Amino acid sequence: MTAPLDGKKIAFIVANEGIEQIELTEPWRAVEAAGGIPLLVAPEAGSAQAYNHLDKGDAFDVDLTTGDLLFEDFEGVVLPGGVANPDQLRTDGPAVDFVRRCVSSGRPLAAICHGPWTLVEAGVVDGRTLTSWPSLQTDIRNAGGTWVDEPVRVCSDGPGSIVTSRKPDDLELFCGAFIDVFANATSSV
Predict the structure, then answer these.
(1) Is residue 143 part of a domain?
(2) Cβ distance 114 to 83 under 8 Å?
(3) pLDDT tens for residues 28-81?
(4) What's the CA gap between 29 and 9, in Å, rounded?
(5) Other CB atoms within 10 Å distance of the CB of residue 174
(6) What b/e sequence results for 33-72 when a residue is b if at least 16 CB atoms lie within 10 Å of its CB, and e otherwise?
(7) Catalytic residue among 102, 113, 155, 175
(8) Catalytic residue among 102, 114, 155, 175
(9) Is 132 part of a structural domain of the chain?
(10) Which CATH number is 25's domain given?
(11) For residue 152, what are the domain limits?
């Protein structure tokens, strides 16, 4: 029997500091359990520092820098949250361009908590319905999107599907939803 992601590469795009650790590690495990190959991508080589809310967590080795990304090499993208992580990431031109190109090409993307800030910066929110940490709702609306307070939201109103969730408490639903979306999309991308 084939695993749902069957060797497909999934980019986990983060800043080099400020990632909410559980929003990286739980989706990472879900991708591995589904037979996918997760790769950690950050603006700078070396490591990416995660946090458990405000307390320093583990550091994770970066596999690839955002400047070396080719969207054709990945079947999906995951944007973990943490307040500082996406706030820094949305100022990284190569990361923002990669997200924009992936969404416009129809590749699926998943973002949790503050992760949708990068989607706003990439200009891919207009006409989409997303959820997030509540403090992003004005940013999403100002970018032309609709914000909803739901544990997980799958939006297919545009090229590719975007899966979003609000917070760590939603991780089980988030992981199940994006694995399903990525598995169903990988054969057609």
Answers:
(1) yes
(2) yes
(3) 999 999 999 999 999 999 999 999 999 999 999 999 999 999 989 999 999 999
(4) 13
(5) 29
(6) ebebebbbbbbeeeebbbbeeeeebeebebbbbbeebebe
(7) 113
(8) 114
(9) yes
(10) 3.40.50.880
(11) 9-186
**Neighbour-count burial for 14-29, b at 16+ CB within 10 Å, e otherwise:** bbbbbbbbbbbbbbbe
Q: What are phi and psi of 110, to 5 degrees?
A: -130, 135
Is the CB of residue 57 less than 8 Å from the CB of residue 17?
A: no
pLDDT digits (tens, 9 = 90+) for 107-129: 999 999 999 999 999 999 999 99
Strands 47-52 and 17-20: parallel
Q: DSSP letters of 64-114?
A: EEGGG--GGG-SEEEE---SHHHHHHTT-HHHHHHHHHHHHHT--EEEETT
Interstrand relation of 152-155 and 162-165 (parallel, antiparallel or unpaired) = antiparallel
| Residue 181 resides in a domain | yes
pTM for the model stands at 0.96
Tell me, yes or no, whether 3 lies in a domain. Answer: no
Q: Report yes or no: 29 and 10 within 8 Å, Cβ to Cβ.
A: no
CA distance 24 to 19: 7
Domain count, the chain: 1
Active site residue 53: no
User: For residue 14, what are its two tokens?
Assistant: 């983060």
Question: CA–CA separation, 38 vs 157, rounded Å?
Answer: 26
